[in-house]
Q: What sequence folds into this?
């Protein structure tokens, strides 16, 4: 790893180290080779670690990729009600909903099927259901919409909304 540092920065850094540690440990020559003190050599570079000891990890839920000849075919052939998440990859609240949908999908796996539709890849489906805000969720029962809502929700709020929608008879 190459580091470009001015002499003034080095002198400032050396003074700060002398004050904090009580000794001067930066050494540099006319050829500008540097030896950083041990405290600075331990600094980590690169991407931060995702795992931290106090952080709880949720079980990984793999999406089941299926191919259908049409969206209507998917809705008609589903043996359970379908929750459709209309999203976009650039949408912050949509990204927030990814782990929420994974959790809800595993919690309600016997009651509902979760499907994600990228509105940028499938604009005709988004237009058909007049998707104007993201994320938009539509619950389909027997191939027809029975509930619609927009915006990010917590897992508990989403589960409550789904269970309420499924209890209401059409």
A:
């Amino acid at each position: 790893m190459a580091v470009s540092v001015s002499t003034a920065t080095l002198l400032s850094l050396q003074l700060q180290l002398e004050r904090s540690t009580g000794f001067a440990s930066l050494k540099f020559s006319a050829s500008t080779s540097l030896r950083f003190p041990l405290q600075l050599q331990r600094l980590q570079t690169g991407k931060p670690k995702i795992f931290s000891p106090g952080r709880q990890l949720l079980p990984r839920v793999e999406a089941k990729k299926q191919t259908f000849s049409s969206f209507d075919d998917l809705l008609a052939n589903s043996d359970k009600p379908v929750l459709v998440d209309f999203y976009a990859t650039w949408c912050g609240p949509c990204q927030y909903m990814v782990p929420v949908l994974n959790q809800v999908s595993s919690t309600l796996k016997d009651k509902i099927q979760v499907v994600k539709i990228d509105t940028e890849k499938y604009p005709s489906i988004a237009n058909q259901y007049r998707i104007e805000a993201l994320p938009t969720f539509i619950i389909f029962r027997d191939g027809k919409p029975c509930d619609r809502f927009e915006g990010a929700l917590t897992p508990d709020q989403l589960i409550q909304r789904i269970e309420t929608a499924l209890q209401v008879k059409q």
